[in-house]
Design brief:
By secondary structure, this protein is α/β, with parallel strands linked by helices. The protein is built from 22 helices and 17 strands. β1, α1 and β2 form a beta-alpha-beta unit.
């Protein structure tokens, strides 16, 4: 294809997370949008499900549109069939056209949809859960939309790009009914691979011998796996996000990917340049406030000699490498105590687990800390005013006794606050009351190894089973700000098809640990040199024992602690500049190659 003709076909991208933030695919699609719109313009449209009763806040519906717009014509055709279809713009950079359809619109046709899947694709949807039912209902609507789009396109070429098994169902019928639509299917993680990896510590070694059907039946996900295999095998071009996942696709989906489409980032959202250090300092102070409220009622340590580590993501104890991280932290703690290192490491686990409420003791210590701050502000205000008047009226050039400027009321209140602040219990490890406290793997490990924030522990643990948001009473900032305030992100995943969390750290100037089993880590390892000098640390997990990987991770963290403040500042600047290697400005070319391939 000549480059000038690549942008002439209609490009329609379907994803479950269009205007619907659930996980990493939302980030992939949303961050890529500006670079696709720049090339395709109005030839580009996204399609996703309308989940819930209200339209997403980031979607703005259009009341009218160009009469020659093929997507608009397809929407009108769908409405004439009796479906409620929403057409508008995604309120993100690039403001692309978006079609949203509620799966429930196809509910009256559920029996027919299930029969079609069984007859033509040998997929038996028996007693589906809510998600699976929504997926097949939406898949039916999505096929209808593409059929209407083909009729409205007037012979123009159409590329349909489908992400994940949740939107790949129409590919089978597009191929069976010979619609003039070229299809690209991208799997970001195979459904079966995720389940098997969570339950098999030798997943990669055993991968070639896994029989997909018995494995899918074992985990009760046969229909989902069959839908994914259908999309992979019937698509014109099949892609995935990393070489690591490519091997998985070959054995579990029965087709080797035609090409790899690595995930990028929209660097314009992250640029800080000269403000990098200021932003780090600003948000580190907010983390300091939490640390003081959480620990200092029991014992204190030097905040100027405190380093903040964190990990975050979906709660998959084994897949996300939480088990390895905890073991490495235990070894680091023992080494720091043995070598009498004064530095304190505060490690945050930011994930999502069912909880009943924030622990009342955690809330109380935070509230008392806020009261202490307000009391200190009032005392300072009083001292400031009286000191100024004394300086203006007094010929004595010596600094007066400042205690004399404080009223007895504020002296009493200050003393009372400090007395009520101190406690006789150690700082709590988990900030919330978990629904399943007794069976939580993180809590169980910490209790078994006695890593429970004892005064002599050099590594302190904060397990926060909820995402960090500005309305969170414990931190009072959003997640990107929290990341900027930390010193090191730790993500040594065992199963991670790509891994946005370390990439987002790099874009914010925060050094990050990843693994050679994650798509991002594997991508970096194969393409770049001197990664550690650029703030990207790769833990080797392929063909390594758990102990060997834990030792390496502990050594990596220990080496990081040897950096002084100046070294860390230099490293943050280096890391941020290195992020350009992962910008969509260059990586979107891989998508263009896929579209050239599908058209040829």
């Amino acid at each position: 294809m000549a480059k000038k003709s690549l942008y002439e076909p209609l490009l329609v991208e379907a994803a479950w997370e269009v205007c619907n933030q659930i996980g990493g695919i939302y980030t992939v699609v949303r961050s890529k949008v500006p670079y696709i719109v720049e090339k395709w313009g109005e030839q580009y449209c996204l399609v996703g499900p309308k989940l819930g009763t209200r339209l997403p806040a980031e979607f703005e519906e259009s009341l009218e549109w160009d009469a020659d717009d093929p997507c608009g014509k397809a929407v009108l055709a769908m409405r004439k069939m009796g479906y409620e279809v929403h057409y508008g713009r995604w309120l993100t950079q690039g403001t692309p056209k978006v079609v949203l359809m509620a799966p429930s619109e196809a509910l009256p046709e559920l029996k027919e949809i299930r029969q079609n899947l069984l007859t033509h694709h040998h997929i038996n949807i028996f007693n589906p859960d809510d998600l699976l039912q929504d997926v097949i209902l939406f898949g039916h609507l999505l096929y209808k939309f593409f059929a209407a789009l083909e009729a409205a396109a007037g012979g123009r070429e159409i590329i349909g790009h489908f992400h994940e098994w949740m939107t790949g169902m129409p590919i089978g019928d597009i191929e069976r009914n010979k619609l003039k639509i070229r299809t690209v299917f991208t799997t970001h993680a195979t459904m079966l691979g995720r389940y098997v990896a969570m339950n098999d510590k030798n997943f990669y070694r055993n991968l070639p011998s896994i029989e997909w059907l018995p494995a899918a039946q074992k985990f009760y996900i046969e229909p989902q796996v069959r839908l994914e295999r259908l999309a992979a095998q019937k698509s014109t071009v099949f892609t995935t996000v990393s070489d690591v996942t490519g091997k998985e696709c070959e054995f579990l989906l029965g087709r080797k990917p035609d090409m790899i489409l690595p995930n990028g980032i929209n660097l314009h959202r992250f640029i800080a340049t000269h403000e990098l250090q200021n932003l780090h300092g600003q948000f580190k102070e907010k983390i300091h406030e939490f640390t003081m409220s959480h620990f200092f009622h029991s014992y204190t340590f030097d905040l100027d000699d405190t380093v903040y580590f964190f990990t975050s993501g979906r709660y998959e104890y084994f897949n996300k490498g939480y088990d390895l991280t905890l073991e490495a932290l235990r070894r680091l703690n023992e080494r720091m105590k043995k070598e009498n290192i004064s530095t304190t490491v505060v490690m945050f686990f930011i994930t999502k687990q069912p909880f009943e409420s924030i622990n009342p003791k955690v809330l109380q210590t935070r509230a008392v800390m806020d009261e202490i701050r307000e009391t200190c502000e009032e005392i300072l205000k009083q001292i400031r005013e009286k000191l100024f008047k004394a300086a203006a009226a007094n010929a004595d050039h010596h600094l007066p006794e400042l205690n004399e400027f404080v009223d007895d009321y504020w002296k009493y209140r200050y003393r009372k606050m400090i007395q009520s602040w101190k406690s006789d219990y150690w700082p709590i490890v988990v900030t919330h009351n978990l629904v399943n406290d007794g069976s939580d793997d993180i809590i169980k490990y910490l209790r078994d190894t006695d890593l429970v924030n004892k005064p002599d522990d050099r590594v302190k643990i904060i397990y926060h089973p909820d995402f960090v948001t500005p309305t969170n009473p414990l931190f009072g900032m959003d997640y990107p700000q929290f990341v900027r305030g930390c010193h090191l992100g730790i993500f040594p995943s065992y199963y991670e098809p790509w891994g946005y969390t370390p990439l987002e750290c790099v874009a914010r100037g925060v050094p990050a640990v990843t693994s050679d089993l994650s798509g991002f880590g594997d991508y970096c390892f194969k393409r770049f040199r001197n990664l550690e000098d650029n703030g990207i640390y790769i833990v080797k997990r392929r063909n390594k024992t758990f102990d060997e990987s834990a030792d390496q991770l502990a050594e990596t963290m220990y080496s990081f602690l040897q950096l002084n403040r100046r070294d860390r500042i230099i490293l943050r600047n280096t890391v941020e500049s290195y992020a350009e290697n992962f910008s969509w400005e260059s990586l979107v070319d891989e998508y263009e190659k896929a579209y050239r391939e599908v058209l040829s």
